Amino acid sequence: MRIVFHLGAHCTDEDRLVRCLLKNRATLADQGIAVPSPTRYRKLLRDTAVQLKGAPASDETQAMILEQIMDAPAAERLVLSWDSFMSFPAWAVRGTFYEFAGERIRAFTRIFPDFASEFHLAIRNPATFLPALKVKVTERGQDPNLIDCDPLTLCWSDAIRQILQFNPGVPITVWCDEDTPLIWPEVLQAVSGHAPDTVLGECDDILAQVLTETGLARMRAYCAEHPPASVAQRRRVATAFMEKFARPDVLETPVEMLGWTQDYVDDLTTRYLEDVERIRRMSGVTFLDA
Question: Under a CB-based contact definition with an 8 Å cutoff, are residues 170 and 162 in contact?
């Protein structure tokens, strides 16, 4: 069995991926893919990792954890999703992105020492990630000033490099959150590992976040009448409808950070795109392009 860790990051997925896979749990189970409810494992894995203190779990502990998480006695893939695998939100940015992500994730993989692991991670432009993270931290009643960094020095490649360093040989798949509406089926397949010809139901959650109700209805009708013949064609159709029917608040995400000017936001964005190119070239990384 392979343990699949969907790592978030915060302010990207908001559990949409795991909700979609849960809606298709029966179809995936037929292919040996287990998708348990997050309520069955998030606290359990956190508490177990704390107790183990980095040591590998015994056979008995591993078996007990799997029994509590899984319904079926066995599976080929076990999908676990939590945007706090790397850190809780208030500690996500402490001078760098997810300072202890590699060590923390390794502690979770040590709960399953007999199985191979793989990681999946969405990254987001710091120009929008940091304001969204600050809102999330504030909503939890924590001090938003815990987000401590020089935004111009932040690089997702540093976090990914650290994850690979602490987890040698474990592959990681990365994509840009901004591209998710165009590559959503590829993201779902990368994480779940389902067969390419599998038809998953209720997969419109992402487009529903981007398109107006009218636009989503028209796109569904168009695709029903003209099924896309390829990934490239599906993306062209989605792009066309997003250009015409995107929600106004999605087209222009307001950035409200004290002292930030448009030139500063543009600089952050340029540096982010340069960092994305670095990540594409990293050994051990599979990058999902739009």
Answer: no
Q: Report how far residue 86's alpha carbon sits from residue 228's, in angstroms, rounded to the nearest whole number.
A: 37
**pLDDT tens digits along 163-174:** 999 999 999 999
Q: 70: burial class by Cβ within 10 Å (0-12, 13-18, 19+)?
A: middle
Which DSSP category does 154 fall into?
A: -
Name residue 113's amino acid.
P
How confident is the model at residue 147, as a pLDDT? 66
- Report pTM: 0.93
d(CA 174, CA 123): 7
The string of DSSP letters for 213-226 reads HHHHHHHHHHHHHS
| Chain centre distance of CA 174 | 8
Each residue's pLDDT tens digit, 189-243:
999 999 998 988 878 778 888 888 898 898 889 888 888 888 888 889 888 988 8
Split at pLDDT 50, 70, 90, the class of 146 is: low
| Cα 280 to Cα 273: distance, rounded to the nearest angstrom | 11
Spell out the CATH class of 2-200+262-288: alpha beta
Which tokens hold the place of 114? 């007999």
Q: Which amino acid is at 48?
A: T
Distance separating alpha carbons of residues 203 and 24, to the nearest angstrom: 9
Q: How far, CA to CA in Å, does 286 sit from each of 266, 273, 283?
A: 27, 17, 8
Q: Cis link prior to 127 (omega < 30° from 0)?
A: no
Domain boundaries of the chain, sorted by first residue:
2-200+262-288
User: Which amino acid does the sequence have at 25?
Assistant: R
Tell me the per-residue pLDDT of 207-222, one tens digit each, with 9 for 90 and over: 888 888 898 898 889 8
Query: Which H or E element spans position 21?
Result: helix 16-23
